[in-house]
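User: Sequence for GNAT family N-acetyltransferase below. C-alpha cells please.
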Amino acid sequence: MSYSVCRVDWQHAAPLLKNVREKVFVCEWRIPKRIEFDRHDKTAFHILVCDDKSQEPIATGRIKPTGEISRIAVLINYRHLDIDTIVIQGLIQIANELELTEVFINAPLDDVTRYQQRKFSPQGGVYMEAGIPFQKMACSLKQLNTNAQFLSH
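Assistant: C-alpha cells for GNAT family N-acetyltransferase:
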C-alpha cells in the first residue's frame, strides 16, 4: 500500500480532516462534535495522510504551537499499518521547525505503553475527558529520532 503524507492548514483542508476525525472520534468513540472540533483547529498545524490508490483521506493529527499533539485519527481499516506513527513523526517534524524543545500528548490510557516505547514519559495523574481516561505523556525533542524524511513517504 502506498500513501501520501502532507502538512495542511485547517482553512483549506477542513472537510478532509473533519471526514477522518468524525468517523473515528464522533462515530467510533462517541465524542460529541462540539468537543471534537474546537477553536484550536484554526491555529494548529495539521498532517493529512491519503491512500494513493483511492485518493481518500485515511489519517490525520495536529500539533498546537504549545507542543501539544492531539486529534490523531486513523480509519479502522488502516490501523494495522501503523499509520499513526507516520502522523506523529510528521507532527514532530513540525515541532522541530517551530523550534520547540518538548512535545506532549494526552494519551488514552490504553495507549500509554505504546507512547512509552516512543520515549514519552507520563506526567501527572490519570484524568477523565469525554468519559475516557487519559494520561499526559511528554518527551523532549532531543530524545526523539527526527532524522527520517517524514513527509515524503
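The beta strands are 3-8, 45-51, 57-63, 68-74, 102-108, 121-129, 132-140.
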